[in-house]
Amino acid sequence: MLAGCSGDGDSTPTSGDGGDGGDGGSDGGDGGDGGDGMSGVNDARFRLFDHADAAPPERHLNPWNPAQTGCWWPGAAIMDRPAAYSPSADEIINVMIEDWEMTDDTTLEATFRDDYTWHNGDQFVAQDYAMEQQIELEILKASAEDGENAHVAMESIEAVDDQLVRVNLHTPYAPKFAMQNTIADYHGNLARGVFTKHDDDQWSDWHDRLRNSSGDDKTAVIEEITTTSYPKITDNPIGHGPFQIADVGDNIIVCELYEDHPNAENINFREFAMRNFPNTNQPVQPYASNQIDATAGGFPVQDDLKGQLPDTHSLYREARSANSLFTFNCGANNDYDTPVNDRNVRKAICHVFNRQGVDQLLQGVKRRFEWPPCRVPGRILELGEHESTEWVQDFEMYGQNNTERAAEYLRKSDFEQDSNGNWLTPDGEQFELGFLNATERVDFQVLQKNLEDFGISVTQESVDTATFDERRQNGEYEMIPDGSSANGITAMWAPGLVVDWLSSLAQFSMEQTIPMPIGDPEGSSGTKDINVAEHIQSWQTTGDSEYHKELMWWWNQHVPEHENMYEPDAGAFNTQNWSLNAAPEITEGIDDALFIATKVGDGISYTGN
């Protein structure tokens, strides 16, 4: 057992220092050589904030059992994954695989490197990865409707030999989309690593029973898989990543360098520790007080907290962000009659909004979204490098308190303004708009004042979470707030996000009509009918960015949601004793960037300043 690692986890000394019961020290390690281990490895401990809810001893590494999961903490440290997708850079980064190719438009092949081993010395083989994906497919198929594809892209997968895997797709995909939807998937537990070992007795038993049973027997094994905590991280589980579990304390997990890992020669520190703070999921204070060296989220912080941060504080993951939006009830999936079912009314409301009014309320964290609504992340628009940043220059801009334009749109839909300046619906009633559960949002506060000054009445209603969810699902609202991740060009248009989730949130139909040409709201060349789901599929199949451009134009012209503010979903990294050297496509855009940084090159280095 490593010194100081047991008990309540309040002490995180470096290995070999005897454990003085302190908070982990302020120097991140004594910088000495690694003793009997690899030369050039310092006896230093990198300390990462642990965001998991469950206490470390309760966690397990079963990706299909969500209760007390340890697949992120420590799974992402002790396991590797075939490849990583960076949504912000829109790039595939090879990790365990050396290459991949599409042999035809529905077949994807990837070759695993032959120098990865499990922490017990066994060779990692393609069968290990294929087993994990086959289990996932069987579980998905059991809940899929007849005739429905179980997986978003994968039809089947097989290990051709110890290094080669072949993925059969149910739909043709362009190469990049095929990878990001399968081998380089970046959602959920399975994206954190390969957790199954093909010759492990328990995984082999579950795998065999899943693939060779049906009916009640299959239901029983799925129930068993999804509720069993196997393997527990306290049972010395093995992985194949650059670090292996050394000790599990009440509030800390300490992993030590696995010297046979292919990237071990690029790692110059001995320990990677994840520190859990059970009374808070906010990393600011532990970071400010030097109890941790880095955190995967929770930054930037409000202006009044910035003075507490160390002088050597830095941010990473800044290309990842979250949007704050107005969400309208577009009326396609419900019988709730509201003026905002009309896109002219939605456009009018967005034109009345004065987005500059939120500036004084941003508190140093959120930033004003300065572009037309287009479903492109603000950070990408800010950098100006993607082709979409050129397209949006011709899009319709809202949020400028353009009351003339707003009035034009309302009159198009037979609204009238009375002698007192109040807007009346086509039925002659006072136009009154309802906000649901929006009292805490500064953009809604600004919009309310803008609308009331314009002659539209506003009511605010607040309900409990259960009632809100029920009303949202049933489409019983006019406007609600939405806060959603905005982490990359293609990620913003993932079918599960747009076709499934957003369509139910904003109650819009897949069948849409857009004015043409793009950039002309008046439609001087007529209109074009599109199906949103089919357009997304065509984009992912062909890679033709014209589909993306038309989807953005639909979003801009129908405004099911309006982007108002965005904030970086960044992490903090203290450079006092450590250097983050990984490539920008890793550090800026991947959610578990610090884990990937230890797997590719000298991503994190101990500097011992």
From TrEMBL:
What family does this chain come from, according to its entry? Belongs to the bacterial solute-binding protein 5 family.
Q: Does the keyword GTP-binding apply?
A: no
Which species is listed as the source? Halosimplex carlsbadense 2-9-1
Q: Which residues cross the membrane?
A: none
Matching entries from Gene3D superfamilies are given as: Dipeptide-binding Protein, Domain 3 (3.10.105.10), Periplasmic binding protein-like II (3.40.190.10)
Q: Which InterPro entries match?
A: SBP_5 (IPR039424), SBP_5_dom (IPR000914)
User: How is this protein named in the record?
Assistant: ABC transporter periplasmic subunit
Per UniProt, the keywords (alphabetical) are: Signal, Transport
